[in-house]
Amino acid sequence: MRLYLLALNPTDSVTEGFLPAAARLGLTVTVLTDHPEAHRAAYAGLPAPPGVTACEVRDHREVVALVSRLGAPDAVFSNSDHLQIQTALTADYFGLPAKDWRAALRTKNKAELRRRLTATGHDTVRALELPPGQDVATLDPPYPCVVKPREGVASEDVALAAGPAELAAHVAAVRTRRPHDALVVEEFLAGDLHTLETLGDGTRRHVLGGFRTRLSPPPHFVEESLEFVAAHPRPVVDQVLAQLDALGVGLGACHTEFVVQPDGRARIIEVNYRAIGDQCDLMLARLLGIPYFEHVLAVHLGRPLPDDLGTRTGRYGHNRAVLADRAGTLTAAPAPQEHEADGVQLVYRPVRAVGEHHEHHRTNRDYLGVVWAVGPDQQAVDRAVSRFVDANRWEITP
After folding, report:
1. Exposed (0-12), middle (13-18) or buried (19+): which is 199, by Cβ within 10 Å?
2. 2-98 — its CATH code?
3. pTM, two decimal places
4. What number does CATH give the domain 126-187?
């Protein structure tokens, strides 16, 4: 059976999660990407590296044409935020299980997400679109407010503004980096940030738990650490699931970020219609003791999920990013590793290679590496992560 996997840059989710799972399922994988050399390098060490073919993956017409030439697919899949619409349209063209492209669009386009939730009566967040070139002074947003790219990801160019001067400064800074992108300016939703991880086959949906997220201080929103939550309160979960239903989310993995306000109201921040990243999906599979990546691929092959996934309980997890605090060249960092002690499994994966120079972005792009641990006790996994960070060094030379 042949799987076409659409991708932009290589990710741990694909390299360590989906590709090994595809091999275990006996699938022949062809990666379609606009960065073919980077993918070939990333997969060079895999026991059975996939085929990699250059493709303008942001254009579904090019994807359809290339897949038609290469041979009929049994599944078309992507774990990229930016490629869900193209993947859905391609899969549907070939008569394969596919996400509703409208749901993929609603979740990717943050302005459309707000409009949909308002129109269906589930939540009303005051949100204004700012097209390229429009003067921000023409808007009348509520303060404090958040400015973000309409179709952005991973906290990139997201900032909190207390008033008009801060908003104008943030917009000007974003436009120097992405002048052709539309922005969204919306009311700030206060509350602790949580996530809900779900997996569906189009008929049934499993809630896999979620995470409690610690963010950097404002005005930026960098995810610094995530602590696994086996079950959020049922009324909160029900509210989030109702909003996902309104958006049309059903098939495959979904990672939803939300806050819970003092009155118990769950309000969605954003919906990423794919598996959670930054090693959290790999940690989730280890925590739950299920073939998570195989399940995700299986639903795109048209296979139903079991009524009971057999998830393991009584396990805890902590995921922490090691962040650059300034621009410069990374000159020292630990190697990738994993080990187990006293029932706690710890994994470290670098994000930036020694020798690479980067600016200071104040986003997830500042990650130098990610360390996570799972075990039978929350304090034990917290201590394991802290010990690892304290025992190692990451040096940045200006």
Report:
1. buried
2. 3.40.50.20
3. 0.96
4. 3.30.1490.20
